[in-house]
C-alpha cells in the first residue's frame, strides 16, 4: 500500500473513523508488538475521545518476549490495558473478548441491571497499516454471520460482525497512517513494514537498525551474518560495507540494506523489539 500524505485524504479518513467510533463501546487498537509505542497512532485517542481502548500487541511471536512483558506493565502504569497476541498462529484470541468484558464490566453490569441478559460489546479495530487488523478480524469473526448485512438502506459502514459470545465488530477496520515527527519512529515503522517502502531510504533504516542490534541483539547478528566481536566495534557504515562484501555483494551496499530489511521482517534476525522501556516505567 502506498501512503498518500495529502491532508485531504487524512481528513477524510479521520472523519470516517470518528463517525464510526460513535457507535462503539470499545476501541481495539492493534499495534505491532515490536514497536508497541511507535505504532500507536496518537490520532486514535484523539478521535475516540473518552472511549475505552484495549491495546492489542500483535505479532508478539516476532517480538522480544521479555520486552513485551515490560511494555504490558508500562502501559498498565499509564492506565492502558494491553495484551500480547499472535494472530497468525491464533494464540490467545479468546482473551480479547474476556479482557474486553473486564474493561467494560461496569457498563455491562448496568445493562444487566436493566434486564439485558446478554449485553453485547460493540468494538472497532483500528491501527496503522500492516499490523494485522484484517487477520485479527477474520480470526475473531470466523464464519459468523454479518448481522445487519444485505438489508437495504443499511450503509456498508455500519455492518456488524459477530465475534464470540458478546463481541460485535465493525466489518471494516479503521486505518490511519502513522503520524510521526521523530525520524527514529519512521525507521522503526519502516523496518517492521508499517510504512510503505516507497517513502523511506533502505540505507537510513539499516544504519538505524544495525546500530540498535549492535547494542541490544549482537548475538542475533553473529548468528545470521557471522558478525565478529571486532566487527561489532566498527562504525555502522563500515560494518555495512564489511557485511556487503561478506555476502558477496561486492560494493553494492544497497543490496545488503534491502536484504537486511527483508531478513528482519522474515524473522531471520530473531525476535526483536525496537521500543525501549521508558526509564520512568522501570522504577
Ligand atoms: N508473524 C505474524 N504475522 C502476522 C500476525 N498477524 C498478522 N500477520 C501478518 O502480517 C501481515 C499483515 O496482516 P494484515 O492482517 O493484512 O494487516 P492489516 O493491519 O489488515 O494491514 P492493512 O490492511 O494493509 O492496514 C500479513 O502477512 C499477516 O499474515 C502475527 O500475529 N504474527
Ligand atoms: Mg487489512
Structure description:
By secondary structure, this protein is an alpha/beta fold. It has two domains: 7-175, P-loop containing nucleotide triphosphate hydrolases (Rossmann fold, 3-Layer(aba) Sandwich), CATH 3.40.50.300; 201-282, no CATH class. The protein is 46% helix and 12% strand. Strands 1, 2, 3, 4, 5, 6 and 7 form a seven-stranded mixed beta sheet that branches. Strand 2 (53-58), helix 3 and strand 3 (81-84) form a beta-alpha-beta unit. Helix 7 packs across helix 8 (202-216), helix 8 (202-216) packs across helix 12 and helix 11 (236-246) packs across helix 12 (253-266). The relative contact order is 0.15. Mean pLDDT is 89; it is low at 148-155. Residues 133-134 line the site of magnesium ion (MG).
Amino acid at each position: 500500500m502506498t501512503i498518500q500524505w495529502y491532508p485531504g485524504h487524512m481528513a477524510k479518513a479521520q472523519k470516517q473513523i470518528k463517525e464510526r467510533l460513535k457507535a462503539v463501546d470499545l476501541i481495539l487498537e492493534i499495534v505491532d508488538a515490536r514497536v508497541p509505542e511507535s505504532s500507536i497512532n496518537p490520532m486514535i485517542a484523539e478521535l475516540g475521545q473518552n472511549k475505552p481502548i484495549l491495546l492489542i500487541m500483535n505479532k508478539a511471536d516476532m517480538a522480544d518476549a521479555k520486552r513485551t512483558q515490560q511494555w504490558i506493565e508500562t502501559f498498565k502504569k499509564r492506565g492502558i490495558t494491553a495484551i500480547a497476541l499472535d494472530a497468525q498462529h491464533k494464540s490467545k484470541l479468546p482473551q480479547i473478548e474476556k479482557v474486553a468484558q473486564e474493561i467494560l464490566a461496569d457498563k455491562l453490569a448496568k445493562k444487566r441491571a436493566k434486564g439485558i441478559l446478554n449485553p453485547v460489546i460493540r468494538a472497532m479495530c483500528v491501527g496503522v497499516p500492516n499490523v494485522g487488523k484484517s487477520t485479527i478480524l477474520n480470526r475473531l469473526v470466523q464464519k459468523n454471520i454479518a448481522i445487519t448485512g444485505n438489508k437495504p438502506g443499511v450503509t456498508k459502514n455500519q455492518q456488524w460482525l459477530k465475534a464470540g459470545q458478546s463481541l460485535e465488530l465493525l466489518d471494516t477496520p479503521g486505518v490511519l497512517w502513522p503520524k510521526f515527527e521523530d525520524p527514529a519512529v519512521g525507521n522503526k515503522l519502516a523496518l517492521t513494514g508499517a510504512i510503505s517502502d516507497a517513502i523511506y531510504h533502505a540505507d537510513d533504516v539499516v544504519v538505524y537498525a544495525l546500530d540498535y542490534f549492535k547494542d541490544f541483539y549482537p548475538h542475533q547478528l553473529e548468528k545470521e551474518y557471522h558478525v565478529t566481536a571486532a566487527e561489532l566495534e566498527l562504525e555502522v557504515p563500515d560494518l555495512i560495507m564489511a557485511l556487503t562484501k561478506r555476502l558477496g555483494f561486492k560494493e553494492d551496499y544497497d543490496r545488503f540494506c534491502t536484504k537486511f530489511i527483508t531478513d528482519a521482517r522474515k524473522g531471520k534476525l530473531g525476535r526483536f523489539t525496537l521500543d525501549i522501556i521508558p526509564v520512568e516505567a522501570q522504577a
